Amino acid sequence: MAKRLVILGGGESGVGTAILGKKKGFEVFVSDFGKIKEIYKKVLLHHEIEWEDEGHTEAKILSADVVMKSPGIPEKAPLIVKLKEANLKVISEIEFASEYTEATIIGITGSNGKTTTASLTYALLKDELNVALGGNIGKSFAQLVAEDTYENYVLELSSFQLDGIETFRPHISVLTNITPDHLDRYDYDFNKYIASKFRIAMNQTKEDYFIYDADDEVITKWLSEYPIQSQLLPFSIDKKLEEGAYIENKNIIIKTKINSHTMPITNLQLTGNHNLKNAMAASTVATLLRIRKDTIRQSLESFQGVEHRLEKVLKINNVVYINDSKATNVNATFYALDSMESPTVWIVGGVDKGNEYEELLPLVNEKVKAIICLGVDNDKIIKAFGNVVDIMVETESMRDAVQVAYRLSEKGDTVLLSPACASFDLFENYEDRGRQFKEAVRNL
Known about the structure:
Elements: E1 4-8, H1 12-23, E2 27-31, H2 38-46, E3 50-52, H3 58-62, E4 66-69, H4 78-85, E5 89-91, H5 93-98, E6 104-109, H6 114-125, E7 131-135, H7 141-147, E8 152-156, H8 159-163, E9 172-175, H9 190-198, E10 209-213, H10 217-225, E11 231-235, E12 244-248, E13 251-255, E14 260-264, H11 273-288, H12 293-302, E15 311-316, E16 319-323, H13 330-338, E17 344-348, H14 361-367, E18 368-374, H15 379-385, E19 391-395, H16 398-408, E20 414-417, H17 430-442
Parallel strand pairs: 1-2, 1-4, 2-3, 4-5, 6-8, 6-9, 7-8, 9-10, 10-11, 16-20, 17-18, 17-20, 18-19
Antiparallel strand pairs: 12-13, 13-14, 15-16
Helix pairs in contact: 1-7, 6-11, 6-12, 16-17
C-alpha cells in the first residue's frame, strides 16, 4: 500500500514536495490553514493531488506516514505539537527531497548575504557544471529534484528549513554570518538560533567542507565550543589564512588542498565589505569544484547583485533611489547604511522580530537626515532614533512614503528603503514591498 505523505502549507516548498511525492508513489494530501494561491492550485489540480485550504481536517492529517511542514509554520503550532505527540515524523522539504538525489549539494545559510552568495555561486558554476539554484530562492529543491536530474544543487537554506532536517548532508556548506534574527521563533534565545544555523553541518563528515566567515565572532566562538567534522575553509578580510580565502594587495587569495587562485577585486560590480565576503565564499566553492580561474573572474566581474538588495532604481533630480527591501533585519540595514556615501532619507519599519536598534545609532547619526517610518506600529523606531534625527514622518503606504521622501530630499541625497523588519503588516512579502517602492518611484 502506498505510504501517505501529508504536506502542511501549499506554497512553493509544499507544492514542490507534493509533485515529488506523487512522482515517487506516495499518496499525497496538501493542507493549508490559509488560502492557497491560484497559481499553486492549478499545479496541484494538474498533477491530480488532493488538497484543502482555509483550514485543516485533522483526521486526514493524523493518518499520515510522514508529514512535511512548510518552513513558515512554527514548531509550536498546535497541529505540529499534536503530530509530534502522535510520534509522526515531521520533516522539511529539504530533508524529503535530499533522499531522492545523489547530486553534490552546496548548502548556503546565514542571517544575511545568503541570497547574494547563493546567486553568485550559481553564476560561477553554471558555465562549467550541470547545476540548479533553489531552496529558499526560486524553485523549491523538491520541484527541481522531481523535474530534472541535476548533478549539482546550490541551495539557499533558512534556519527554519534546517530545523526540519535529519539526514540532509551538503557536500559543501557555507555559513555567511550570524546576527540576531527571527528570535521570535527561537524563544528570544540567540543560542537556539545559532544552533539552528549550524545544523547545516551536523551530518557532514571529514570528506565534506564548511566555509565560514572567520571575522564573525559568533561563528568562531561556537566552532571552538562545538567542533564539527567537516574540513574548515574560513574567509576573512582582516587576517591572512593558511587555508581558505583572504585579501592581499587588492586580490582575493583562495587556498584549498586541491588548488589556489588569485583574483583581483578592483573590477567587482558588487560594492561593500559584506559583498566582498559573499564573493570570497562563492569563489571558494567554485575553487573546490575545480571551476577555471578565468571563469570565476569573469563571472565575479559581471555579477550585478540580486533584486531588492541595494538595488539602484532611478536617479530623479540628482537624488538616487535605492531598493533594499530584502533587509528584513537590523544587520542587513547596517550594511546598507554603512555603504551610503551621501545624506540619506531612510525609509524603515514593518513587523519587528525582536529588533535592537542600538548598533545603528552611530551610522544614523552620521548619514541619515530624515527617517520615514513605514509600518503599522513605529513606536520602537521613534523611540530609538527620535533624538538622533531632526525629521521623522510616519506613513502607512509605500506611495506616501516615497512622496514624503521626494519632498524631503535635495540634490545629491539618497533615498534608501531598508526596512530592518519583516513586511507582513502592509505587504505580501519583501518582494511585494520592493516592487511597490520601485513603482512609486517611477510614478514620481
